[in-house]
Amino acid sequence: MTTTVRAALLPSVGAQLELTEITLPDPGPGQVRVKLAAAGVCHSDLSLATGVLRAATPVVLGHEGAGTVVAVGEGVTKVAVGDPVVLNWAPACGHCHLCGLGEPWLCENSYAASVETYASRTSDGTGVYPGLGVAAFAEETVVSENAVIPVPQGVPLDAAALLGCAVLTGYGAVHNAARVREGESAVVLGLGGVGLAVLQGLRIAGAGPIVAVDVTPEKEELARRHGATEFVVADENTAKAVRKLTGGHGTDHAFECVGRSTTIRAAWNSTRRGGRTTVVGIGSKDDQVAFNALEIFHFARTLTACVYGDGVPDRDIPLLAEHVRAGRLDLDSLITDRITLDEIPAAFDRMREGKGGRSLITF
Ligand code: APR
Ligand code: ZN
After folding, report:
1. Which of 148, 170, 176 is nearest to 66 (CA)?
2. Which Gene Ontology terms cover its molecular function (predicted)?
3. CA nearest 204: which of 328, 343, 18?
4. Ligand 2 centre and the CA of 345: distance in Å?
5. How far is residue 108's CA from residue 110's CA, in Å, rounded to a whole number?
6. N or C terminus of the chain: which is more exposed, having fewer CB within 10 Å?
7. 203 and 146 in one domain?
């Protein structure tokens, strides 16, 4: 038995998305089939589509989704048909070296699902790869039960999609990776879905001042709604402006949510002596960041990156849901554009122009 669904297929790197039908197999042992309710469009999807990040093609992108379990394979115990779930794009294997060290977000096998075809193009039977193992830009998908997390009651399924990437990444960067404490100052560079989620994480942590930075001045209103207390338009003097807002010292923390060498440098330069920069953005291997040997010693700062918010999705999603239910985490404000499956190219264009927060596809 198979199921035919509509999907936004990327035929090859750099090509246009094609709205087409794909054929999904029934879930195999340990797998589940999920009917998508919503999927967010993340900058990583754009980077995969343009070749900044590598993906096997043809591929169905989309890695930030939520939906309902419609079929389960043999031996599935984690969820049942009818359960609302969030999709996890980096399910940990639980037995590799890094899982053993207690850092499952760095699991050596978390991308295993993305390197094998999971479906076929209905018209000609060509094998199709699932983007980051999830393939949320389709009406339905088939994933391992390790890649679904039950959504607790009280969180609307459409907004819950954002928990699967932007929110877990942004909130986790603040709470798991940087471990920001109440009263610490922070700067956030890049205010897309991920940067805005970092701002909300900082607000929940009680940080302050919270400086938001973006090249687009129109992001100020959005940034303040998500917790920013100050706003700086990015230019070559960003770090100077941020230091001025923190008594000349610089911030305790910086979060880089763009993925560029210039913003990584600006983030690092914005922190105080001994401050910490957490790189959340994913950049290109051709973009070098330079530091001189003296400044590394003199400033005694930390530069680190975090993957998927250094989180454990099965532990953190319920925690985030609790913040949503209590009104501390506002998912609705993150969604600035509600779109259909055929409108992903326009969402990519908004990203290129630095417009809006998250675009959310609803099915
Ligand atoms: N300085 C400051 N902000 C910038 C700069 C810059 N030089 N260049 C771009 N920006 C801003 C854009 O204006 C936009 O508001 O960065 C933001 C990026 O937002 P999105 O494109 O929506 O990206 P998002 O999905 O939030 O992802 C951010 O995290 O997961 C990674 O791959 C992802 O690297 C990407 C980053
Ligand atoms: Zn993402």
Report:
1. 148
2. S-(hydroxymethyl)glutathione dehydrogenase [NAD(P)+] activity; zinc ion binding
3. 328
4. 16
5. 6
6. N
7. no
Q: Extract the tokens encoding 281.
A: 């953005």
User: 199: domain range?
Assistant: 169-308
Task: Report the separation in Å between the CA atom of 46 and the middle of ligand 2, taken as the mean of its atom positions.
Answer: 10
Q: Same structural domain for residues 124 and 250?
A: no
CATH number (domain holding residue 121): 3.90.180.10
Distance 44 CA to ligand 2 centre (A): 5
DSSP per position, 76-125: --S--TT-EEEE-SS---SSSHHHHTT-GGG-TTTTGGGGS--EEETTT-
Residue 43 beta carbon below 6 angstroms from any ligand 1 atom: yes
Question: Token match 């609302």: residue?
Answer: 84
Helix 344-352 to helix 43-50 angle (10° resolution) is 100
Q: Model confidence over 229-277: pLDDT tens digits?
A: 999 999 999 999 999 999 999 999 999 999 999 999 999 999 999 999 9
Same domain, 205 and 62: no
pLDDT 10s digits, 267-292:
999 999 999 999 999 999 999 999 99
Query: Within this chain, do residues 76 and 156 fall inside the same structural domain, yes or no?
Result: yes
